[in-house]
Amino acid sequence: MKEETGLTCDRLYSADICEQFYETDRDAISILPVFVGFVDPGAKVVINHEHSEFCWVPFEAAVGMVPFAGQRHVLRHVEAEFVQRAPVRHLLIGA
Fold it and tell me: What domains can you pick out in the chain, each with its CATH number?
């Protein structure tokens, strides 16, 4: 997070969900854990050289921006479990 955005998480959680997808070039299924980080709302984003821009959008807009069904599912899960309700404390990393 720090490397890509310059942001430091106040709290970091396991999202209790994995994104999985098939990679044709490797003939493999990738299973990637998802994490949720909370940052100071006034923190300044500083993107690194690998990126050209960023934007903050509401969840519903983000759901419309990602191309894959698995990504949309993950975003809806994060909104339901970390925005619409308090995160489960057992998922907190480094507590």
Answer: 2-91 (3.90.79.10)
